[in-house]
Amino acid sequence: MRIFVLLSRVPFPLEKGDKLRAFHQIKELSKKNEIILCALNPVSKLDKQEAFSKLSPYCLSINFLDLSIPGRYWNMLLALLSKRPIQTGYFYSRKAHKEIIRLIEHYKPDHLYCQLIRTTEYLRNIELKKTLDYQDVLSYGIKRRQRKKSLLFKPVFTLEYRRLLRYEREIFDCFENKTIISIPDRDLIPHKDKKEIHVIPNGVDHSYFKPIENAKKYDIIFTGNMGYPPNIDAAEFLVRNIMPIVWQKHPDAKVVLAGASPSRKVLSLKSELVEVTGWMDDIRDAYSAAGIFIAPMRIGTGLQNKLLEAMSMKIPTITTSLANDALQAGNNKEILVGNNETELATHLINLLENDDLRESIAENGYSFVHNNHSWDQATNKLHSIINNS
């Protein structure tokens, strides 16, 4: 089968969750199908040659469609006036739309597959079998972020939330198949037939993220794209609220915040006990240099890849109910779950002081992700859905 894959971003480098999911799905789908990749590109500094070389083993054709900065802002304004979500406007371009139609007419794919509702305006009216990967619920993510915004920005986020809610419901019926990353996300989709959405979880590359013996430079690690609002919030929550409780008992405990594009807020957290790495060529170097992983997520949706990676590297892991609801790991067995700074700090202190607990959570978490999260298993389900539509 020939599958046309449309993405809102070039799926390399793999510093964002949507790019990671897309890359591995393309890799797995290519084993049984021809892939025509079309990726929008809103990033001016993208190394296209490197991205092309990483993707070319899996694609019959690779097409990057640049979105100019002036064009993006103009299309956001048009979206605002047309009552569409600003997010769809940001990623929409008439020029790109014409090229996407041309590519589809040229390659004559059997199926269209697009990721996130950011791309659906391009494909919604095309008379071919189509699958939409909602991935997660953008409307609910905006709703959670809206609660933390100042009075100045709250109206904008409220407006975007309402538009996304309407759009997620409206676009549902334009696609034969719908997929999403987790059951909690599926249950938030505002459509009466949301149970029809197939849950396709993320996997983890177990051959890459595996236990590595390394000297421990840090006691605690949190990873992720440090320019992404939910990760910024989690980093601040960790350093400003959780760690002061931990430092009362363990004043020398060191924290590392590892990941690309740290915001000014994240950079301001640096101290003698807190390191901010920025982009790392190999994030495993950070994981393997730390004793405990924590993801104190308070906003955002979807399945946190960082949890899968840490558990696959056999690092004892702590998170919140918000993140674990999507992961579904066993609390106090495969992971430790806390919902406020006191509970999360207590878990950290217990792991710092109890070698047996550290080893038990690490071993059980490792077994959990190996049994439940592999890219080939998840993508085989996606392949079946596409083939049978």
Strand content: 15-25%
Mean pLDDT metric = 95
The CATH topology of the largest domain is given as Rossmann fold
Largest beta-sheet characterization: 7 strands, parallel
By DSSP, the count of extended strands is 13
Q: Which sequence of strands runs across the widest sheet?
A: 3-2-1-4-5-6-7
Order of helix and strand elements from N to C terminus = EHEHEHHHEHEHHEHEEHEHEHEHEHEHHH
Number of domains: 2
Head-to-tail CA distance between termini? 12 Å
Annotated CATH architecture of the largest domain:
3-Layer(aba) Sandwich
- Global shape: globular
Protein model, in words:
The chain has 389 residues and is of the alpha/beta class. The protein is globular, with a radius of gyration of 21 Å. It has a seven-stranded parallel sheet with strand order 3-2-1-4-5-6-7, sandwiched between helices. Strands 10-9-8-11-12-13 form a six-stranded parallel sheet, sandwiched between helices. It is built from 17 helices and 13 strands. The protein is 46% helix and 16% strand. The chain has helices spanning 17-29, 48-55, 69-82, 86-90, 94-107, 120-123, 138-146, 154-171, 183-186, 229-249, 264-267, 284-288, 305-312, 321-327, 341-353, 355-372, 375-387, and strands at residues 2-7, 34-41, 61-66, 111-115, 130-135, 177-180, 198-199, 218-223, 255-258, 274-278, 290-295, 317-319, 336-337. The mean pLDDT is 95. It has two domains: 2-203 and 375-387, Rossmann fold, CATH 3.40.50.2000; 218-372, Glycogen Phosphorylase B (Rossmann fold, 3-Layer(aba) Sandwich), CATH 3.40.50.2000. Strand 1 (2-7), helix 1 and strand 2 (34-41) form a beta-alpha-beta unit.
